[in-house]
Amino acid sequence: MNTHVARPAAKQLAYQLYARVLHPELFDTRAARVVEKDSYRLEIRICEAGHVVELHRNGGVTSEINIDRSMELPKRGRCLSVKLNAGRDVSAQPFPDLSFQASTQIETLDAEVFERLTAEFRDDAHRATLFHSFASTNRMRPEPLSLLATECTPHTVVLHAFHTFPDDLAVIRTQSLYEF
Asked: What CA–CA distance (Å, rounded) separates 46 from 22?
């Protein structure tokens, strides 16, 4: 069993949105799930740096990702890209009938609070749309976790994502809103 974890440092990440599909082989997927509704399909994947979410609707696809900034991705179709080193609110209109808004935050905590929060995320795993626990690289710290929760209606998708980075004692939180 491979226990190597290549999770980058939390402050090395970028949050990006594309108006296109990105090749799945660009990301080392650890967990995946598909959510289907009448007018759209949501493909959710957890990878080392965070998540990849594809919204398929009316023949168009948007791809939302958390990624290591050192990884080079195509510029074609990129609607936005921000560093995940502070709290940000962003928005884009990837297609005429789709608006996108997101809020990103990185929070560094003291060790006790970080461990308590990690335990709470682990307890919430059964309610999550998708959850993954990575192998720990430090036996003195909790394992890295990723938890994604979705709220889907016929005209909106809300995605709450939480990713823990024990080596940095950091939590990255993103909330995305797709409206059509």
From this structure: 14
Give the pLDDT mean for 68-82: 91
pLDDT in tens, 131-165: 999 988 777 788 999 999 999 999 999 999 999 99
In a domain, 21, yes or no: yes
CA 77, 176, 130, 167 torsion-angle sign? positive
- Rg of the chain over all Cα atoms, to the nearest angstrom: 16
| Mean pLDDT for the stretch of residues 99-106 | 96
Structural domain span for residue 150: 10-179
SS3 (DSSP) at 125 = helix
* CA end-to-end distance (rounded Å), the chain: 43
The sign one gets for the Cα dihedral 25, 100, 173, 32 is: negative
Is 65:51 a contact under the CB 8 Å cutoff?
A: yes
Q: How far is CA 94 from CA 27, 130, 157, in A?
A: 22, 25, 15
Q: How many domains does the chain have?
A: 1
Q: Is 3 domain-assigned?
A: no
User: How far is residue 11's CA from residue 112's CA, in Å, rounded to a whole number?
Assistant: 21
